[in-house]
Amino acid sequence: MLARRRDDLVRFASELHRRGLTSDERDLADLAAELSFLLSPEGYTQLVTQSGWDDARYRSWLVDGVHRAAAG
Predict the structure, then answer these.
(1) For residue 68, how far is the Cα from the chain centroid?
(2) Cα(51)–Cα(72) distance, rounded to whole angstroms?
(3) Which of 3, 32, 49, 50 is the most buried (most CB within 10 A)?
(4) Which of 57, 10, 2, 71 is nearest to 35 (CA)?
(5) What's the CA gap between 40 and 43, in Å, rounded?
(6) Which residue from 43, 45, 47, 39 is spatially nearest to 12, judged by alpha carbons?
(7) CB 48 within 8 A of CB 55
(8) Exposed (0-12), middle (13-18) or buried (19+): which is 43, by Cβ within 10 Å?
(9) With 90 as the cut, is the pLDDT of residue 61 above it?
(10) Is the pLDDT of residue 2 over 90?
(11) Per residue in 4-40, pLDDT tens?
């Protein structure tokens, strides 16, 4: 399951690059690792379930994090 998840995130990183959302110098394996951390279910649990964030705040934080990660 973890290997499949990593493959999915490498494809996601590649798609972000294809759409021009990363620089040519951005290492896509590193980006996939950062996306894995950002999108982890544990992050959602910590921020929403344990810390009381609502879904809108979490989504905003997540979108910002993905943009920052893609920019490198």
Answers:
(1) 9
(2) 28
(3) 32
(4) 10
(5) 5
(6) 39
(7) yes
(8) middle
(9) yes
(10) no
(11) 999 999 999 999 999 999 988 999 999 999 999 999 9
Q: Phi and psi (nearest 5°) for 22?
A: -130, 160
Both structure tokens of 32: 């996939």
Cα–Cα distance for residue pair 70/62, rounded to 1 Å: 12
Sign of the alpha-carbon dihedral angle for 22, 65, 30, 8: negative
Residue 3 has pLDDT above 90, yes or no: no
The first and second tokens of residue 60, run together, are 């905003």
* Residue 19, burial from CB neighbour count under 10 angstroms (0-12, 13-18, 19+): exposed
In the numeric block, the tokens 């999108």 are attached to 39
CA quadruple 2, 53, 59, 63: dihedral, nearest 10: -80
In the predicted model, what is the mean pLDDT of residues 43-68? 97
